[in-house]
Amino acid sequence: MSGHVLYVGGEDHHSRIPFLWATQRRGFRVTAAGSGPAKPFREAGIEFRRFDFARFLNPLSDLQSIRALASLLEDLRPDLAQAYDAKPCLMLPLAARLANAGTKTIRTICGRGWVYSSGSAAAVALRPAYRIFHRFASASTAATVFEIDSDRAFFDRCGITGKNGVVIPAGGGGIDAEGFERALAASASRENIRRSLGLSDAEIVITIGRMTRQKGIPTLLRAAALVHAERPAVRFLLVGPRESEGPWAVSQAELNAHASYVITTGPRSDIPALLRAADVFAFPTEYAEGVPRALLEAAMARVPIVATSMPGCCALIRDRWNGRLVPPHAPEALAKGIIETLGNRDVVSAMTSRALELAKRQFSLTAIVEKHAALYTELLGEVPTLQTRPAKIIAG
Prior knowledge:
Blueprint: E1 4-8, H1 17-25, E2 29-34, H2 39-43, E3 47-50, H3 59-76, E4 80-83, H4 86-99, E5 104-109, H5 113-117, H6 121-138, E6 143-146, H7 149-158, E7 165-167, H8 177-186, H9 190-196, E8 203-208, H10 217-230, E9 234-239, H11 252-256, E10 262-266, H12 271-277, E11 280-283, H13 293-300, E12 305-308, H14 311-314, E13 324-326, H15 331-342, H16 345-362, H17 365-380, E14 392-393
Parallel strand pairs: 1-2, 1-4, 2-3, 4-5, 5-6, 6-7, 7-14, 8-9, 8-11, 9-10, 11-12, 12-13
Helix pairs in contact: 1-17, 3-4, 4-6, 9-12, 10-15
């Protein structure tokens, strides 16, 4: 059985285009709604509708966004609507109730977000309110998709999973292995990209992500200073946006303090080429997120990975088997992991092969689409016992 699925996301929603396109090929009508650019969706032949929302706390703006989303549901009347990112996952069930268009909603929990990651007073104070919002949202959600088991267990303990909770590894879209390999093959050579960066003779440690404190960038900068003291030829390449990160953005002054060995590029579209040029991929996140796409891409590019032992990272990396895991908030441990990885190329080669194999097997786009299609078919089939069924795992 097929139907019309509306996918709702944020600025990076275009990163899910391979998943949406593959779902469309399975016979589902697909529409995307998000706050990012429309052009990538239209070039991929995917219908796109604009949906704006404030990333940070803004009650008045949030109410306006819920009404706008309800209007969109009334206009499109999709059979299913699936939300990604923290705010859309709260807004969509509320908008569906307001629209009363008969749309069944799906939340995709790509991590627990800042409220449950940060130990700040503001985050702790907001947790009771967020649990109330999630409990209210779960009451009118047809299914909740989690990327990792620990997130589902957390939602279960808090009583906010709702009915039909499922775990789909990399539920945010998985990795398009064939597409990434094509992009890698078509990209500039390792030598050319390193030359274009002015880093022909350097050892390059790369990180890809938002330049925000939640992603552990201040910890990475402190680790970079320690690595530089021991291996002066190492350069750190930080790829991703900073200006969009509001109060959590790493300041330009902090970056400038390490300018002799840290290079920032801002957002880039040539990620496969940049990964090909790197010697180590460092992922210092201190954020309770799902399975990070950046880690999957690093694995696909065979770049040795040093990541923090956060749940989403542990879903892909097993310490000293296919990468290195170090504690979060620990610049000394991160620096040591990077230095040891740079100095053990033979051991690292075996680890990168295992990381590639696991990424392809467990987090492939094909497997993720198949599991979502099965979920959609079940929801559209209106199985009588669906609402009383306990949470389950759709594993690889």
